[in-house]
Give the backbone structure.
Amino acid sequence: MKALPIYTYGFEVLRKKTKRITKVDDKIVELASNMFYTMHKASGIGLAAPQVGIDAALTVIDVSMIEGEEDKKPLMLINPKITDSHGEITMEEGCLSIPTVRAEVERPEKVFIVYQDLDLNPQTIELEA
């Protein structure tokens, strides 16, 4: 595995609409592995492909280092889409693409996401803040 460069605020790739992934091959699997490695090395809990300069709808998440979340398994979401949300919560957050800034951010308390797994099978998940 290798650490990928994390693109910071101002880079155009962070503003572009991502391309859907239509085929999972060794390149996509390697990208996801490198994204997990990069995210962990940077002490992050989530990373999207555009943040490493790749125009693809791929996100990795791992909250297992947060107290009380140790039993959560890492997630790899291909072509994720939020389909619904409920509630509201304000939490302090950071972003690997804005490395020195932490701020109170208002987010939905619960989100419902549809995505695809490595076999491009549709999946749904409910995530709570």
About this structure: Helices lie at 26-41. The longest strand covers residues 75-86. Strands lie at 46-48, 58-61, 75-86, 89-95, 98-107, 110-116, 122-128. Residues 18 and 55 are 5 Å apart (CA to CA).
